[in-house]
Structure formats: C-alpha cells, structure tokens
Design a protein that fits this description.
Alpha-Beta Plaits; disordered C terminus; 30% strand; ACR1-12; alpha+beta; ACT_dom; eight-stranded antiparallel beta sheet
Length: 449
Amino acid sequence: MGSSVAMEVDDDEYAQLIRRMNPPRVVIDNGSCDNATVIRVHSFNKHGILLEVVQVLTDLNLIITKAYISSDGSWFMDVFNVTDRDGNKVWDKEIISYIQTSLESDACFFPTLRNSVGVMPSKDHTSIELTGTDRPGLLSEICAVLTDLNCNVVKAEVWTHNTRAAAVVHVTDKSTRDAIEDPLRLSTIKELLCNVLKGNNTSRTAKMTVSAGLTHTERRLHQMMFDDRDYERIDMSWEGDEKSRPQVATMDCSEKDYTIVILRSKDRPKLLFDTVCTLTDMQYVVFHGTVHTGSAEAYQEYYIRHVDGLPISSEAERQRVIQCLEAAIERRASEGLELELRTEDRVGLLSDITRIFRENGLRIRRADISTIRGKAVDTFCLSEMSGNPVEAKTIDSLRRQIGPTSLKVKQNPLPPPKPPEAASTTGSLLGNFFKVCSFQSFRLIRSYS
C-alpha cells in the first residue's frame, strides 16, 4: 500500500478484447424494493473494481444501505441498495444517467490501482499533501503560512487520527488565481510548511509534497495516513462512547481458503468506501460479502484473500488487518461539533476562521474546505482542546465573531450519561458480538459450499 509501490492494473490488448466482448452492464431499478433504489453491476472482474463502483456511488452522496458482493472467478456481480441523504429513492434522471455512464466506462473498469475514477491533473491549482503530528491550532498555523506566502486555499480536506494529521490542499496564486509552478517558490512553501508540521516533535517525521492530483482525495488521505502508520496505537483509550467503538474480527474459512472479516460499527455515510478502500490498498481481494445497515449500526462481512491468492496466514498479518480496518473507520468517526460555514470567499478567509476557532479554545478534528461559484462552503468537526464537547456559550461566541447567518450547526452530539451497569455488561456485549458473527459466517459458508 506504500506510496513508493507503483501498482498498475493489467490493461493489455487481451484484457481490452475480453472487456469489449463482455461490456459492463448496469441495471438501476426503482421498482423491486419499497425503500431503496437497487443498482446491479455485472462485469468482467478486475482487482479494484469494487472500490471504483463504491466510490462513484459515495461521491454522489448516496447512502448504501445494503450490498451483496460476489466476484469469484472472472465475473463481478454486485447489488447495492441506495438512497439519497434524506432516505429517499434516487429518481433524478441526471444522477441515474451519470451512474450508468460512469460505471459502464473504461475509466471505471480499467483504473490505475492507486488512482480513481474521474480525477484528472489540474492546471487551475497546485495540490499539496501534508502529513505530521496533530496538535491544537495546526490548521490555523498552516493557513497563516499559506496566506503570508500569497497562496489562496480553494479546496482542502483535513483528517486527524491517533495523534497524526493529514491534509490535501489545493492552492492558487493570490494575484493570478492560477496554479503555482515556480520551483523556487514551491521549495519555500515546502520548507516553511514542514517546519509548521514538525513543531516541537522530532520523533515523528513531517512531510509536504506537491502532487499531480491524480488520486481521489479521500482515497489519498487513507493512503497517506496508512503510510504514516496511524493505525499503530500509542494510547489504547477510546475517545467518545465505548459502544460506538468499531469491532473487527477475523476467522478462517478453511474449506474455501478464505479469511472472513467481520466489522460492526456505528453507521455513517461513506463507511463502506473507507473499509473497501483499505482492503483494496492493502492488496486484498473481496470475493464475497454482505453489508447491512440498521437504524444506527452497520454490519459488514467479507470473504477475502491476498492478491497472491492466499488467505491471512499469520497472527501478525491478522492483527495488522484488524488495526488498519479499525483506523479506517475511526478516521471519519470523530464525535464532535460539526459546523458548516457559507459565506463570500476571499483570500485569507480560512486563515481568519481557523484563528477564531483556536482563540476560542477549539481543536479541528476534520475539515472539508471548498469554493463553489465564489462562495466558501466549509465543514468543520470541532472539539474543545481537552476533547470534550463544545459548550453552547462557545458556539454563541463563534456566531458573534463569524456572523450568525454564515454559521450553521449541522451536528452537536452530547454524550449520554453512562448507566451504572455499563462496565459490567461489556463482556456480554462482546460475547454476543462474536456469537452473531459466528452464526452469520456459518450461514454464508454453507451457502457458498
């Protein structure tokens, strides 16, 4: 999965001939299910196709409520039940047409393994990738440096997890609004940003690179955090409600030479993308699988092998898969105040906003920065420096400083009081989890035998 490994999907003339003889077929059905649109995808199988299909659906902000995956042999046959963010079926003809066109295109079914659908290098901006040690005020300092260097941030995505931070930032020149290509100027930007990322921590490396922007941003963030080994636990404590902690188990299916991976976690948008992305970039192939989401919990079960055809063969490999899948789920699972900012864009806006957050004692857990038709549309996930939920008086202070019409609270989860018996029931909860896992796995193994 390391970025130094350049894995290419076999795209020779024979593969293209097979592809033309067996073009992908996508059926979008709004009649067979009462509460979801059913999307069936049939195609010649290639490693990475499952991720590409899931990415197309999640990039449209569709919610995958159920999925049935089968890609044994040379054929890929998957079924997805999807809704929009409001829980409704997908009726929009433009969206339906886009799904059909994207999933039946060569770009989707002959991708570069570490790249993704529909992402092209841009001359409109310079893409900067950053990784380093997380700390309060880090994004504010990065934005201040970029502003001082006459750079304008037009888009950015920032993740933090397990003391590490990763960001993909698109910048333009302040005066020309074009990409920055001068090598000397880029070298200066790199030097100053690396100093900010490093801070006082010399035990872990800080990296800043200028990329071609070829890889899907969210997939690239997963890769960057994996390369930075954020899955290695420094502090075993869990932030937030213990019940929301992801649970991952693996077991052997010796009859079919599969490893079974079972995941239970709090349901949220893009969860399936995060787990499938991690398995794919770790060079595992999902042969069979089922995904089901309830009112709050998501259940995922996969039958996997490594690309060399072998199941997981050692305890060290097993633990690494478990840790990496837990990290993939946790990176976007921060339970904090979620604020949306909508206002007129201007140079230095992000620097000012992040400074206000810092001055109010807030820590940025995640950020999604974008500019749409001259307007800044930004989403921030925040907590207090201590990790506690943000108090109402702090939200009022932010509204006064930023503007009440510009700031909207999207989510403000307050942790429920813990019942006295919570500690005594932990063992039975985990016991029930593995009983259910074993039952589900036994049922699926029998169906495949």
